[in-house]
Queue: 2 jobs
Job 1
Amino acid sequence: MNVRDLRKRVPYQIQRDVLDELSVDQVAEKSDFKISTKEKLRDAVRCTGPRFKSCFLSFVPLLTWLPRYPFRENAIGDLISGISVGIMHLPQGMAYALLAAVPPVFGLYSSFYPILIYFIFGTSKHISVGTYAVMSVMIGSVTERLAPDSDFMIPGNDTNSTTLDIIGRDAERVKIAATVTFLSGIFQLLLGLVRFGFVVTYLSEPLVRAYTTAAAIHVIVSQLKYSFGISPQRYSGPLSLIYTVIEICALLGKTNIGTLVVSIVTILGLVAAKELSALAARKIPVPIPVELITIIVATVVSWQMDLKTEYGVEVVGQIPSGLQAPVAPAVSLLGSMVGDAFALAVVGYGIAISLGRIFALKYAYKVDSNQELIALGLSNAIGGLFNCFAISCSMSRSMVQVSTGGKSQVAGAISAVVILVILLKIGELFEELPKAVLAAIIYVNLHGMMKQFGDICSLWRTNKVDMVVWVMTMILTVLLNPDLGLAASIAFSILTVVFRTQLPKYSILGQVPGTDIYRPVEEYHQVKEIPGIMIFRSSATLYFANAEMYIDALYEKTGVDVAKLLSHKKKLEAKRLRKEKKAAKKAKKEAKKRAKEAADKAVGPDPDSTLPQAIILDLSPVNFLDTVGVKTLRNIYKDYGEAGVQVYLCGCQRGVVESMEKGDFFNEKVTKSILFSSVHDAVLYSQQGNSKEESYFKM
């Protein structure tokens, strides 16, 4: 005999009074103690020594965990992990800089400064912050919109010829990228300081995965010009992706064959190398730096074969050594990029906190969502001063950091040191690297995002509403670009929640024989309705958007249209009064009685005889009531009461009761005696004819 069978056979008995809300308050001795808003505010701003220390340490987590850093256990793993991730930062930083439409060296800056800031202020031990494809393409849409190539065309030697001022264009785009990054960091910092970390809850997992997939499509399209060696016109705004694809197709005849060959060879080589690396991962503890080997080989080949001169292959170009001094953001540009900066702030935080929570759950520690906002905000704001572009965390780098033994943020700091060495000594060696190779690295690294198209099939089987959110997010982001697409996707996702509350499931409940359990009668064969009592439940909360539908469903399910019933009753009452008035004119008191009896006889049988004795509204799914909801319940109670049907409410949460109190639902005639904690209490009270005698139920 298993535990489940034993549990089924365990009987229990309950013997108690039927309790309404007032009785429960008395028995449980309800507390009326409430903290005033003034006291809450005073407590929030009160500063004591221990409290100041706690706040300061939570603001700078490094001071908490670094003194207790287990050097012997973690040092070797963090060192190997930091070097491995630092090597990955080099090709990814340079490649993602192309997405941001800035020179590759600024991708290396973005892989250095923000990492050091996050090392000090971040709370996740395992995520690898730095350049990220989705963030880079969002930055690129801003830089190319505010600094298009057409603004930097200078007259050539010939009358009708023009030349692109690449140096001036790149300088302006770097300034724009740094400014929007700074502003997005300020947004994140402010949201963190006001404890607004919960904003990420509006980014559901289907929405985030669909958004990153759509952004990956934008990334791929934006890199096609480097793969084919063409220069398509830059489009902005809605449908710009479609226009860009059409433009690229029209320019395919001008493809640079040398560039295309470099792209194809690099892609095939990367795919083959990654497959071999995956097979060798079981035997080699440290992953093979495939991207690093690729850019080294490509740079050597480009230098030896002089691809730039002989075949017209576009290369990275000058990479200055050393670090740059901080530069103030361009204040004049802030007004034109507020929406873009906020989108960057939300998307970057959403991706980082989602991945951070996954690792925190796996390795049993806590990630502070508000502190993560502050850490990312400082990383972007300070990084923007050093000409970095917006950062988030990368799944691929984070997985490498974990798989190679990384156990703390020290691994991230070591990876920043690796980038520093590259910036100071090695960076200039990659000046002959073809941009087509960086584009190929991006394509291959995005294959994981492309696999997310499989979400459609899995969501179709599990939750079709989430599937619709996924598909719509994908379509909106592709058509409207990442910034507008994000806003439209969030709005659509919220609308699906609203629609679900407007289309709840309405049920009549019946009793499971021999128990105090009530279930929808249409879903169970053995569940029976209580004679003379209708128990009605909605699966959603009750508020202005579905209040009218709630009443209509109540009338339909109970089979009682109170409006028509009351109208009929009023007509009968008016008819009776007319007869009484007519009888009063013809006779005195006795004659009036006879006229009344005759009028009552003419009225016919009482229509209320077919009505249920009571209607019980199960409000357990209702988590809040607005003024319309309170008014709806008041009208239901009043209308059914006039029709001779008593209405009881059960399962009300404390907030719902408080809303009813504030909405003047209760008065001298309507008290909390109509409220019950459970459906069974309300049923017993109705059956006993409003007599609260002791009830005994045995199950």
Note: The radius of gyration is 35 Å.
Job 2
Amino acid sequence: MDCHSDPHLNDELNNLNDVEHLGELDGKEEDDEKLWSDNSERNMSIRQPLLRKRTNVTSQIAVIGANVSPIESLDYEIIENELFKQDWRSRKKSQIYQYIFMKWALALLIGLFTGLIGFFSNIAVENIAGFKLLLTGDLMMDGKYLKAFLVFAGCNIGLAAAAGALCAYIAPAAAGSGIPEVKAYLNGVDAPSILAPSTLFVKIFGSVLGVSAGFVVGKEGPMVHTGACLANLLGQGGSRKYGLTWAWLRYFKNDRDRRDLITCGAAAGVAAAFRAPVGGVLFALEEAASWWRSALLWRTFFTTAAVAIVLRGLVQYCWTGKCGLFGKGGLIMYDVSAAEATYNGYDVLAVIFLGVIGGVLGSFYNYCVDKVLRTYSFINEKGPSFRILLVIIVSSLTTICAFGIPWFASCKPCPTDLDVKCPTIGESGNYKSFQCPPDHYNDLASLFLNTNDDAIRNLFSSTREFQLPSLFIFFVTVFALGIITYGIAVPAGLFIPVILAGSVYGRLVGRLFHSVSALDIGLFSLLGAASFLGGTMRMTVSLCVILLELTNDLLLLPLVMVTLLISKTVADSFNKGVYDQIVKLKGLPFLEAHPEPYMKHLVAGDVVSGPLITFSSIEKVENIMYALKGTRHNGFPVIDEPPFTESPELCGLVLRSHLLVLLKAKYFTKERARTGRGIVKKFSPFDFAKPGTGKGLKLEDITITEEEMGMYVDLHPITNTSPYTVVETMSLAKAQILFRQLALRHMCVVPKSQGRPPIVGILTRHDFMPEHILGLYPHVEAHK
């Protein structure tokens, strides 16, 4: 009997989509059979196909709501059905060349546009923040201190509120760094709106407003997200809705090519933010991408080279003074090559000391960020107005600190051997007079009342002197403000706060070892920044190259390498990197490179759960419609049965999106028979291509009559006849490694012995999540 026609079973299956709590219907369980539902796209599975009714299935359904988010996975796997094979067999050389040309052309466009956006962001920040600081400084020089504070506070809070409003009302996904979201996407997680055009718009303008508002944030993380959003927009394959579907772009209507483009976009974002093209490629390889190949390495390098060329040309143009307050600054190129990089044994001890401090402080920083994000989540859930209110509160606190703390610093006389003005009056500069008498400057004001980029240049400088109390005060303030600022509704990068805080304690350590060290004090500041970056972000190779490209000092390479390695090693003994923590906090089902140790003691068959919904290779329309209405599954196993085969066998896997296309076209037959190759003439492979960020085909768009419900559909032409399968006795750890390295969405589990149904169940990424496994087997020790 066909179980789809059983009304009692139908009711039980429909209830699965509404359950959010742990439950068990009557406590009856079979040995080793655990059942799981998570209200997401994952395909539920049990040990028996539902097309043969099981008398006890309704008493077997227990629901565990460990993951009730609607987050889906991406279809990176090539769907090798008859349409796909026919398309590749008939594809001409000219079409292959078009595809190759478009891949490189899109990589070039990503590089060009990302470079332009990065340049625009820097010009905007330098001019907006520069105007605000100049106006405040002029009022201070006239002795109008209260008016100066009100102007400074008004500009900061106004800019911050504008950035918060953009994030709260237009694109909430644009808040924060964006690197965790890009990292999750490249891992195969299709979280909603993270790469939408609205997110791109808010990321660009919100980042400019937020950084200009004086927050202790950077625009580097948002630039990575911006590059990824731009790549996603270019890789949509056109738009049917707006009639922009160019024939050449149709080849990119799949997740695999979009993934490659977004990887290029992430690398371009780093290159645009730091003017570090090689560092951008290594960042994408080490931190962002979960899947890599040599061809992708070439294209990302090509993309970042385009970024570097664009930025170099535009920056040289601005050096002529035609870009307002934007001069040599803005792209955080901290040239320290003038400092002599000679070091002795004491310097090596100092570097080890810096690495340990960076590891401890980095892990503590991550711990604090995690706690603050959890606290802010309760506020942000109350609505957009509360998010904006939180932004205004943090902006007010930042403004009070930036304007109030320099009053406690003593004035220092200006150095006599300078080639720049001291104090800086009427223009942007690094020697702020603040409340000091003529020929004196305030070192704390030179750090607080400056853009973050200029503050870092001051700390990396070997000529500027800072008092020890000023360094301590600035370190504590920046450390605290960096923690409480990340998590509010503005685009906010973590690189700049971490570099700021690290360069301060690096300078302090340099003062400590000054009597025995041969290293310049500015180079100690750079090593401190490297140690704090390694302790928070847990990157090594890419950070090392980025810092060397930033500072133009290859002689410091050995010390930077040692610092990063020690800080990462120390910090790893306390907690995970900041981006990994944020990914987990957002509830994104990220698959780690290494499986949990307890997975070695489980097999694939232990975590498949149910019920499994399968289709016959020639299925009744009514059954397909019922299954699509009753579930949100993305993939369904297809079984060949007698009389088409001698015994039931697994034909393959069919996707929900492909079924919808077939149902929309109403390619039905009255008899249960194969349709042959006629479908190849009726459909093109691009009819089954995945839509972009716009609205795709939904079940509600399809109308089926009562007569058509009794007809049949031949699923052979759209079934992936070569899905990845594993035997049910394979260790779960090995299955996860295969699942991640092959970038799968579905993994079929087949029985070890004959005489059983041809498929045991389907594994999706949610089946590998610790919450799911430990929910099924609570006695398993998670960390052993």
Note: Residues 1-69 have pLDDT under 50 and may be disordered.
